Amino acid sequence: MPELPEVETIKNELLPHIVGCHITGITLFWDGIVRQPSVEEFCSRLLGQEITGIIRRGKYLILGLTSSEVLIIHLKMTGSLLLKPASVEPDKFTRAILHLDKETGLYFRDPRKLGAMWLVEDANSITGKLGPEPLEAGFTPQLLAQRLNNRTAPIKALLCDQTFIAGIGNMYADEALFAAKIHPLRLGGSLSRKEIERLHSSVQQVLWSAIGNKGASVDTYLRPSGEIGTAHFQFQVAHRLNSKFCPVCSTPIERIPIRNRGTYFCPNCQSHQV
Ligand SMILES: [Zn+2]
After folding, report:
1. Ligand 1 centroid from CA 35, angstroms
2. What's the CA gap between 263 and 246, in Å, rounded?
3. Among 36, 68, 119, 173, which has the highest number of CB atoms less than 10 A from its own CB?
4. Catalytic residue flag (residue 59)
5. Tens digit of each residue's pLDDT (9 = 90 or more) over 228-247
6. Which of 56, 59, 95, 214 is catalytic?
C-alpha cells in the first residue's frame, strides 16, 4: 500500500502539472469512491474550481481549491493517480477521472475499490486525528520518547498506527526497525533512550531514502507518469524481496504476524533482549 514516500512522490510529481489547472469535468465509474458529500454535490461543487495547491498529510493528499474547500484523496491499499491525456481510454480499474485544462485527466485507478475522496471545508475533519509528521522539524527524539512512554503495544503496531505517527505502514516500519536493530514485538514503553534515538534516525533515514527513490512499487503503486518507484530494490528485510537472508548476518529473515500484518525481521540483529 502507498505509504508516506509514495504519497510524497505523487504530491511532488503532480504539483507542477495540476496546480493552476481548473477541474473541467468529473467522470465517476464507481460512486463509492466519493465519501463526502453526496456524489451530486461532490461533482457540482468541484466543477470549474481551480486547484491552488497540493500538500501531503500522513498518507492523504490534500488539494486546495479556489472556493477554500479542499479535495482530500486517500489511495488505501491499491490506489494510484495517473496523469494522462484525456483522450486515453480508462482501463477497467479506473474508478474516477478528474478532467483538467489542456486536455489532461487525473485518473484514479484502484483495483480493490478501497480508495476514497472527500470534498470538505476543513481538512482537519478528516486528518485531524493523525499523529506527528516524521519528517518535520517538530518530530524529535524527545517527542518520540514522550509518545512511547508507558505504551504497552508492540513497537511495530505503534509505528503503523496513524494516530501515533503519520504516514508509516508495514514496509517502512519493518525497514526502520531493522535499521534500528529493534525487535518488532518489543513493547513501545520498554525502549531505552539509545534505542529511541536509533529508531528516530532510522525512521527518517528510511523515509528520505525511499522518497529519493520515488517510492516502492511492490504492489500496484505507480508514479503519476506511470513509471515505477525503485525504493523496494533497497529493502533490507521488508517482504524479503531482495533475499531470504539478513544482509548483515545472513540469518534467515523471519516473518511473524503482528496485528494481522506480516512482519519481517532478523531474529539475530533484532534480538528481543534490551
Ligand atoms: Zn541479521
Report:
1. 44
2. 14
3. 173
4. yes
5. 999 999 999 999 988 999 99
6. 59
